[in-house]
Amino acid sequence: MFVEEIFGDYAAFAPIIIMLISALILPAVHFAGKRHTVTWAVALVFAVVSMAVNAYMLVDGFTGTTLGVYEYDAYTGVMLLLFQIVLFLAILVSNASTETTRLHVGAYYALLTGATTGMMFVAGSSDLLTIFVGVELTSISSYALVTMKRNDSRAAEAGVKYVIVGGLSTALTIYGISMIYGLTGTTDIAAIAASTAIDGMNWILAIGLVCMVAGYGFKIAAVPFHMWAPDVYEGASSPVSLFLATGSKKMGLSVFFQIFLVLFVAGSSLSAICGEEVQYLFAIIAAFTMTVGNVVAIAQNNIKRMLAYSSIAQAGYILIVMAVMTDYALASGMFHMFTHVFMKGGAFLIVGALICAGLGEKISDYKGLAKRSPFLAAAMLLFLFSLAGIPPLAGFTSKFFLFSSALGGVDGLTSQWVWLAFIAILNSAISLYYYARVVKAMYIEKGESTEKIKIPAVFTVAIVICVVFVIVLGVYPQLIFDYCETAAAALLL
Q1: Interior/surface letters 241-276, b for 16+ CB within 10 angstroms, e for the rest
Q2: Interatomic CA distance for residues 366 and 351, integer angstroms
Q3: Calpha distance 8→208 (Å, rounded)
């Protein structure tokens, strides 16, 4: 395999090494060329190369461990691919976006790739400390990205709130890790599982786990740790909002999978001792998260804030995985994470494109959009209906898999989580109401202007990519779902 020939003992790190090189050289590239387009092109090339290398490793079935704390397997490869797709979409439109800074171009792309490097490092980590380091690399980069929107008080306010909340979540997380380390003498997740298999649950372990749930709950904007998300998504530029909503949040969910599913499912006696209680805890968090996200989204008039609360609700759906704790649920959750990238990412791309064309961010600004830009209106309708779960789009298929996992999935009907599946279905129906508000504005209400809207070509390309995948994954989910099943089995083996 050529990856092993080139990278040797560090072959498992190959996609990360490429991304890290990109983050390190991009400021120098911009300093030497002084042109936004050159820096953008270099960042895009590195993102594509890293994605291609990872795809090759994933399809080839490569597995390997580096330094004893990072393992590349099917799960790692699938999660890396998700993060790389998010980065590709964010970089692709950044050169044409009027919201991105023109003062610190090299730093902007370095922060994007640096944040992605952190996500990728988290995906393959098997130790609490290495996961923590990866999460913090992403978080610190994200704080800077949010505040880089020029001359915008909302961005400055959002950045301050993000830093404060992020600092609190970091403190809770490191306190939880310290409690677990003090009890078990290790931060290796598999070793912690083995230790608890002997000693069982006690109050020190319980406090440590609760602190980690709260700390990483901030990262995924789970209720009641969600209040920062709407302000941050509204204040940041659209490419950064896309990146945070579809990438950073998925990293947080990956952390939940890698820590808590391994501790309570993969070979640990904790499942027998307190597994059901933990499952109900996550089920309650999931139910409140999806309900609060959808209900509060109804009252939003700013489309970025509406999409932010929608993202909170989507995190609630994916947290069903943590309640059900089966291979099928994990595979379904990972598949929904992929479809969410294209659905929510596409919606943010349209918002960014319309901002470039001079439209505002209020839903009322979208009145008459169907006449001014039939393509953008049709694409937005597609993305919103997919998010609501309308067949035969990708959102319907992934929700069908995810919600059915709460009913027993491939193992048949079970009554334990029927109530959670019912709440999820009810919330999907609620979400259709506020998505329909945008569709009504675009297709039924008349706008003040009938002038045709022109958007940059790269936005059109990125939106078309998302449209294609929303349709294809809806009718042919095996394109991704088969890999998700393999990944789930690899993590929970």
Answers
A1: bbbbbbbbbbbbbbbbbbbbbbbbbeebbbbeebbe
A2: 10
A3: 38
| Tokens (6 digits) for 165 | 């909340």
Element (H, E) at 108: helix 105-123
81 to 78, 141, 231, 337: CA distances (angstroms)? 5, 20, 28, 11
φ and ψ of 220, to 5 deg: -100, 5
User: What is the model's pLDDT at position 401?
Assistant: 93
Q: Tell me the CA distances in angstroms from 15 to 238, 301, 469, 479, one per residue in order.
A: 26, 41, 23, 22
Domain tally, the chain: 1
User: What does DSSP say about strands 70-72 and 64-66: parallel, antiparallel, or unpaired?
Assistant: antiparallel
Dump pLDDT digits (tens) for 195-208: 776 666 677 888 88
pTM for this model (two decimals): 0.93
| Contacts with 415 (C-beta within 8 Å, 6 or more apart), sequence order | none
For residues 196 and 269, the answer to whether their CB atoms sit within 8 Å is yes
What does the CA dihedral 308, 314, 318, 319 come to, rounded to 10 degrees? Answer: 70
Q: What are phi and psi of 185, to 5 degrees?
A: 75, 15
Structure tokens at 369: 């959009």
Residues 379/468, Cβ–Cβ less than 8 Å: no
Residue 263 CA to residue 127 CA, distance in Å, equals 12
φ/ψ of residue 225, rounded to 5:
-105, 30
- E-strand spans in 21-147? 64-66, 70-72
DSSP sequence for 317-365: HHTHHHHH-SHHHHHHHHHHHHHHHHHHHHHHHHHHHHHHTT--SBGGG
pLDDT digits (tens, 9 = 90+) for 278-330: 888 899 999 999 999 999 999 999 999 999 999 999 999 999 999 888 889 99
**pLDDT tens digits for 401-421?**
999 988 875 555 556 888 999
Q: Which residues pair with 65 in a beta bridge?
A: 71
| Contact residues for 456 (Cβ-Cβ < 8 A; gap 6+) | 93, 96, 353, 356
d(CA 247, CA 94): 16
- Measured CA to CA, the distance from residue 37 to residue 365 in angstroms comes to 30
Residue 374 belongs to domain spanning = 2-491
